[in-house]
């Protein structure tokens, strides 16, 4: 373990934003984490994984700590689920690909999502009708107060839509070190997401395998989302807003084309990308940043942008959508 001073964080965030960390350290074990935190004392700490859900708006005067704990292993099965442990420092996309290589289904809808596995529960990542909470059994995390590793059951994670207890009460109080995932032995494809179902139907495959579903998901993501290594981005920049049925009915009268999906609790989840496109931002730039021409929900760095420029575009898009639809958009990434 080595602490480096004055490190440029541009390579460590997918928006490719410039920021300098006064101190930087990579931890390959729980003991490394403990040692780095002890040496830092009362100084500021930023836990940074793959940097796929963060806006670095300024330099960070403190320790940037990257938990790069590796490891992927089959723990066994209980007759219903296959249990797999994945270290927090493993690439999530690589971990999904590894399970598919073993012939294990369960994670295919979450293929090609960028970032490290340890960040997945914080955001409760989701795609194509599946969220992490559906496949997580429990996780391991280092308690920064006691210094002990403790387990959190799925219920204790208190998952919500792009939300968890780790974004709220436990923010900055624990570091996730490993995930324990449960993959069904009696696998069935989850094709409730219309676009995915249509993509698979177009292939003519009647009984898709986990690999078939993953291939369809990957093709959809590559068609709609830019590769962050080529064009800096943080994936979907805004959450899909959730409104009550009365608000949705009013919106449909004023805007008949509004896209909404009924939720189990009776609320309606609006398509943020549609709102942004209708507000005139799809493919439109503001300085060196813009909303992607293939998917209005994705904010992109056209080259050399700063965090301040990202925040200016964020605010402009939110203001436009609110002015036209009376709906508030909530950004997904954490601003540092």
Automatic annotation (TrEMBL):
The protein's Enzyme Commission number: 1.3.1.98
Subcellular location: Cytoplasm
Annotated keywords: Cell cycle, Cell division, Cell shape, Cell wall biogenesis/degradation, Cytoplasm, FAD, Flavoprotein, NADP, Oxidoreductase, Peptidoglycan synthesis
Catalytic activity entry: UDP-N-acetyl-alpha-D-muramate + NADP(+) = UDP-N-acetyl-3-O-(1-carboxyvinyl)-alpha-D-glucosamine + NADPH + H(+)
Keyword presence, RNA-binding: no
Coarse class of the protein's main subcellular location: cytoplasm
Enzyme class: oxidoreductase
Location of the active site: 162, 236 (proton donor), 332
Pfam families, per the entry: FAD_binding_4, MurB_C
SUPFAM superfamilies reported in the protein's UniProt record: FAD-binding/transporter-associated domain-like, Uridine diphospho-N-Acetylenolpyruvylglucosamine reductase, MurB, C-terminal domain
GO MF annotation terms: FAD binding; UDP-N-acetylmuramate dehydrogenase activity
NCBIfam families, A to Z: murB, PRK00046.1, PRK13903.1
Family: Belongs to the MurB family.
Cross-referenced HAMAP family: MurB
UniProt protein name: UDP-N-acetylenolpyruvoylglucosamine reductase
Gene from which this protein is expressed: murB
């Amino acid at each position: 373990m080595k602490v480096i001073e004055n490190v440029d964080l541009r390579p460590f965030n997918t928006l490719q934003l410039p920021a300098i960390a006064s101190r930087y350290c990579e931890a390959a074990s729980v003991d490394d984490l403990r040692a780095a935190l002890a040496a830092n004392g009362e100084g500021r700490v930023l836990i940074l994984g793959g940097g796929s859900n963060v806006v670095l708006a300024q330099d960070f005067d403190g320790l940037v700590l990257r938990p790069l704990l590796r490891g992927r292993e089959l723990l066994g099965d209980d007759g219903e689920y296959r249990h797999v442990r994945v270290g927090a420092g493993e690439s999530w996309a690589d971990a999904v690909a590894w399970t598919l290589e073993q012939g294990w289904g369960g994670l295919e809808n979450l293929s090609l999502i960028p970032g490290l596995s340890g960040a997945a529960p914080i955001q409760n990542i989701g795609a194509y009708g599946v969220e992490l909470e559906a496949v997580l059994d429990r996780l391991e995390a280092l308690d920064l107060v006691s210094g002990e590793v403790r387990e959190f059951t799925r219920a204790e994670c208190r998952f919500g839509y792009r939300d968890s207890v780790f974004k709220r009460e436990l923010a900055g109080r624990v570091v996730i070190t490993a995930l324990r995932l449960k993959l069904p032995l009696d696998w069935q494809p989850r094709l409730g997401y219309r676009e995915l179902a249509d993509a698979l139907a177009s292939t003519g495959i009647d009984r898709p395998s986990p690999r078939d579903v993953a291939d369809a998901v990957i093709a959809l993501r590559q068609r709609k989302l830019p590769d962050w290594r080529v064009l800096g981005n943080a994936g979907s920049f805004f959450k899909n807003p959730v409104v009550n049925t009365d608000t949705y009915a009013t919106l449909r009268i004023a805007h008949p084309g509004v896209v909404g999906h009924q939720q189990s609790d009776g609320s309606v989840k609006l398509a943020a990308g549609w709102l942004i496109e209708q507000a005139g931002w799809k493919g439109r730039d503001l300085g060196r940043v813009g909303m992607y021409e293939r998917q209005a929900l994705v904010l992109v760095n056209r080259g050399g942008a700063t965090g301040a420029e990202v925040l200016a575009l964020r605010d402009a898009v939110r203001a436009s959508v609110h002015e036209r639809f009376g709906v508030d958009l909530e950004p997904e990434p954490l601003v540092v």
